[in-house]
Write a structure and sequence with these properties.
Layout: H1 3-14, H2 30-33, H3 37-58, H4 60-68, H5 90-99, H6 111-117, E1 118-123, E2 134-138, H7 139-155, E3 164-166, H8 174-186, E4 190-192, H9 198-208, E5 212-215, H10 217-229, E6 241-244, H11 253-263, E7 266-273, E8 277-283, H12 286-289, E9 298-300, E10 305-310, E11 324-330, E12 341-347, E13 349-350, E14 362-363, E15 369-370, E16 375-377, E17 380-382, H13 384-392, E18 397-408, E19 411-420, H14 429-444, E20 449-452, E21 468-470
Parallel strand pairs: 3-4, 3-5, 5-6, 6-7, 18-21, 19-20
Antiparallel strand pairs: 1-2, 7-8, 8-9, 9-14, 10-11, 11-12, 12-15, 13-14, 16-17, 18-19
Amino acid sequence: MTDIRQKWRDLVRRHAQCFDRPGDERYWSPGLETAPREQLRAMQSEKLALAYRYLWECSAFYRRKFEAAGLTAESVHGVDDLPKIPVTHREEWLTDQEEHPPWGTFSPLRQEDWLKRGWMLYTTSGTTAAQPRVFRHTTFDRDQWAWIGARCLYSMGVRNGDIAINCFGYGTSVAFWGLHYALSLMGVPVISGGGSNTERRILFINTYRPTVLLCTPSYALYLGRAMREAGHNPQESSIRTIVCAGEPGACVPATKHRLETLWHAKAHDDFGCTEVAPAPLGYTCTNQVRRTDAPVDTHLMEDVAIPEVLDPVTMQPVPEGQPGILVVSNLYSEAQPILRYVMGDWITVTTEPCSCGRTHARAVGGLQGRNDNLLKIRGLMFFPAVIEDSIRQLADVGDEFKVEITRRDSMDHVKVTIEPASPIPKSRYEPHAERVGRALKGSLGIHVEVEVVPYGTLPRTQFKAQRLFDLREKLV
C-alpha cells in the first residue's frame, strides 16, 4: 500500500467518532453532529487537502484534470482552495471508461487493492444503448458506509430493538447494501425483502412484525395499497418508520402525508448518489419529520462530504438561502474520494442549527429536483415534484399518474392521466378531471389537459417511478 493511501485511510478513521456504537441516546456521533461550524470547516480542510493529494498521486484521470487546470501537487491546502479544483460531470467518467475499459482511470483504487480488500462492484442503472458506469469499493468503504448509514438511521429514531424489512433491490445498486450494513452495525435485525415479490413482503410484515420499512416512496404507497387489497390494514401493521430513498417523495408534502396516513408511520428521507455519495449525504431527523408548518429539511453530513450550492451557468457559489445545483466532494472513500462532482440536484441550503441540536447545514425542503429534469413549459420553469404535490393533495385521486408534454400548433401542451383512488362510475370521471385541472393550473399557472382512466389502468410502480414523458424533442 502506498504511503499516501495509508495516510488517507488513517485520517478518515481518525475522524470517524463512535464508529461501532452510539455515543449517547440522541446522536450516534455527538462530537461530530453537534460540532461548531468552525470545527467542521477545519475537519473538511484537513481531509480535502489529503484527498486532493491522494487523487493527484493515484488517479490518472484526476492528475490529468488537475494539471490541465494549472494545479500542482501543492495547490490545495483546505476549503479555501476548493474553487481551484475543476468540477467533474458524469459524462467525463463515461468517456474515461470507454477509453480505458472496464474501470476507467478516475478511481485511485488499484487492481491489487481490489483483489486484496475488494468488497463489491456497483453500477448505475445504465440503458440498453450504453454500458452502465461501474464502481468498485473496498471493505474499508463498506465499513464507512455502515457507520454513516447508522448515523442517518439513528437520527430517524431507529434503535436496537427494532426490526427492519429492506425492500430495495438486491443487486448492484448501492441502496440495499448501504442500509443493510448500517442496520447490522446497529444490531437491528434485517428481513431481506430485496429478492421477494410483494405478496411475500406482505407475509413477512404480518408474520414477523418489522417496525422499519426501507424502500422508495412509490413502493411504500404501492405496498400499502396492495396490503389493503389483500385484506390487511397497513395502519394496523407493525411498521412505524418508513425510510425512503431513490425519489424525492418523502420531502414532497402531499406524498409524505399520503405515506404517513396510509401506514400510520413517520416517513423519512435518505438521499445520496452512486457516484459520489453512496452512503447517505442527506437525511431527516425526528424533529424535522414532525413538522407540519413547512416541507421538511434534510441534514447534510458535512464531516464526510463538502456540499456546495452553485449557479448552474457560472458554476460560482450562490448566497446562502438561494437555490442552486448541488456539487459534492467525498471525504471518506478509499475507492472513490471524488472532488466537486456535479450531482445536479437543485437545492437551497441553510446553516441555521436544527431544533434537534445538529449543526450541519440543511437542504431546505430536501432536494428540489435534478437540473436535467427542470421543465420549461410556455416560458415557465418548474420541477415534476410540483405536479406530484398538486395531484396527491386530492385524496380521491390515486397514487399513480402520467404526465406527457408535447407541442401542438407551436405551443407546449401538457396532458396528465390519472386514476380515481378506488373504482367509480364513469359519470364521475369529469368532476375528477376538472378538480385536478384546477389544482394544476393553480400550481403551474397554465391549462393542463386531464384524462381519467379506470382504477387499476396505470402501471404500478415498485421501484423508481417514471411518470414524466417529455415528447417535444421527439416530434418532427
